[in-house]
Amino acid sequence: MAKHNILGKIGEDAACNYLASQGYAIVERNVSIGHLELDIVAMDGTTMVFVEVKTRTSDSGLSGIEGMTRNKMHLLIRAADAYVKSHDIPFEVRFDICLVMADRNGAITGIEHIRDAFYPPI
């Protein structure tokens, strides 16, 4: 497995642990819908939350939020819409982002959780 894939898995594990510690129920991880993917599907009370995880090393100089382009948000919205329709989800939905920072050895140095990170256009 490539180093960036290993770091991504470490980041997703850390994000799941963090979200669970905040009372979220993790429903699924790494959901593929055609060519689209959802990192984490979770429940926060009666709200279904689609969480995008961005993991970076502290020496990269990037926080991870730079990777949340308009195109990436559009793909996440499409994936979430397909997920909701295919599972007949009756809940409100929300999009969160977890920015995970790690050192060169993969040890987590910080997590920033952005609730309601963006809203899908109507």
SSE arrangement:
Elements: H1 3-21, E1 25-33, E2 36-44, E3 47-57, H2 70-87, E4 92-102, E5 108-114
Parallel strand pairs: 3-4
Antiparallel strand pairs: 1-2, 2-3, 4-5
Task: Label this structure with key terms.
39% strand, 122 residues, alpha+beta, 2 helices, five-stranded mixed β-sheet
* Structure annotation, total helices: 2
Percent range for β-strand residues: 35-45%
Succession of helices and strands: HEEEHEE
* Class from secondary-structure proportions: alpha+beta
| Large-scale geometry | globular
Average pLDDT score: 89
Low-confidence runs: none
Radius of gyration: 14 Å
Strand order of the largest sheet: 1-2-3-4-5
Distance between the termini: 39 Å
* Total beta strands: 5
Helix content: 25-40%
Biggest sheet layout = 5 strands, mixed
What does this structure look like?
- It is a single chain.
- The chain is 30% helix and 39% strand.
- It is globular, with a radius of gyration of 14 Å.
- The protein has a five-stranded mixed β-sheet.
- The termini are far apart.
- A hairpin with a 2-residue loop joins strand 2 (36-44) and strand 3 (47-57).
- The protein has two helices and five strands; from the N terminus they run αβββαββ.
Short description:
The protein has helices spanning 3-21, 70-87; strands spanning 25-33, 36-44, 47-57, 92-102, 108-114. The chain is an alpha+beta fold.
